[in-house]
Each structure stands twice: as structure tokens, then as C-alpha cells.
Amino acid sequence: MFEHFTTAMLELFATSLWETVLMVAISGLAGALLGVPLGVFLRLTDRGGVLENRAVNAVTGAIVNAVRSTPFIILLVAIIPFTRFVVGSSIGTAAAIVPLTISAIPFVARLVETALREVDSGLVEAAQAMGASTRQIVFKVLLPEALPGIVAGLTIMLVSLTGYSAMAGAIGGGGLGDLGIRYGYQRFLPDVMLAVVVILIVFVQLLQSLGDWAVRKLSHK
């Protein structure tokens, strides 16, 4: 076992791991930058929200749910024309980042919305009574109070993106998933597939442990 692990193969593993890290990091960052504001918007326009607007909330929520309910492998294929338009190709690490980001945005939005719902409504009412603007309520009340929950949600998102990035390997998305499919499956090298699985498990464990640590630190403040 592991007789296929030559220097060239180890270099390929290192490259694939780096591609996976890039995919998860970039799509996670982009998903957070777009998903967090979207989650805040969903909460503000929801029933009892500072900017309550049932119609806008319903339409936005329907769009978010539509994207969330689309299986990732189908999303990968469905947006190939858009991916080509954005990065000029439908294969490779850069191409995989596009559908990963699109899948992350509604995922983050719903997690953030849920975290914001947990904030004591009395704090918001007190801020409103003191004449706080919507911006002040968001940045000085809602987000600070919900921060541990938001960080926990972002951790879940990064773990999910790791699995999605491996799935992207099915259509040449690069990373560890692509390595596992090309060598472990197509070339019948089970030791390579096993190594890919072990690396992904360790990677996910590290992400989860880091996220749990951050949540504990924020909760103690």
C-alpha cells in the first residue's frame, strides 16, 4: 500500500491541497462578504424587523431558497455559461470558485438571519427608543450580539464548501476532489483515494476546531 506515492505524486498532493485551500478560502470570503449583508437584509425586512417589508422579504427569501435547494452538482453544470463569462473557462480552480461562491451566499444568508433572530428584541427596542438609526442598530446591536452565532455559521459554511470543492473535481474543478477522481477512481489507485479522504477529514477537523475556538473566545467577551 502507498507504493504509488512517488515524489511527483507527493508534489501533486501538495498542489491539489493548495488548490482546495484557495477554493474554500476565496469562495468562503466572497460568500461571507455577500451573504452576511443579505442575511441582515432578510432579518431587517422580516416580520418585526426594523425595516419590515413582507413583500420584499418574501421575494428575496424565495430567491435564496431556490438557490439553496439546487443540488451543488446541478448548480455546477447549470451555470457553466456564467462561469465561462466570469473567468473565461469552465474547468480548473478559478472556474470552481464561481459556483462555490454562488452556493455559499444563500447558505450564509440564512445562517446569519437565524443568528440575528436570536438577539433579544428588547435590545433593539431600547436602541430604537434612544433614537438609534438602522445602521447603528445593525452595527452596534444586532451584529455584535449575534457574532458568536455568525462565526459558528461561517464555520459550517467553510466545512460545506470543502465537501463541495471535492465534488467540483467531478467536472475538472481541481483540488483534492479532482486528484481523487483522476487517480483514485479512474486509474484504480485506492491508496490515493484513501489519502485524499484522510487529508479532507483532517482539513475539515482543523476548520471546525478553529471555528469552535473562535466562537468560545467571542462568547466569553
From TrEMBL:
It is a multi-pass membrane protein. InterPro entries: AA_ABC_Transporter_Permease (IPR051322), MetI-like (IPR000515), MetI-like_sf (IPR035906). One of its GO terms (biological process) is D-methionine transmembrane transport. The keyword Transmembrane applies. Keywords: Cell membrane, Membrane, Transmembrane, Transmembrane helix, Transport. The chain crosses the membrane at residues 20-44, 56-80, 86-109, 150-172, 192-215. It comes from the Bacteria. GO terms for cellular component: plasma membrane. Its main location: membrane. Pfam families: BPD_transp_1. The keyword Transmembrane applies. It is found in: Cell membrane. Residues 17-211 form the ABC transmembrane type-1 domain. Belongs to the binding-protein-dependent transport system permease family. CysTW subfamily. PANTHER family: ABC TRANSPORTER PERMEASE, D-METHIONINE TRANSPORT SYSTEM PERMEASE PROTEIN METI-RELATED. This is ABC transporter permease. It comes from Ottowia cancrivicina. The lineage of its organism: Bacteria, Pseudomonadati, Pseudomonadota, Betaproteobacteria, Burkholderiales.
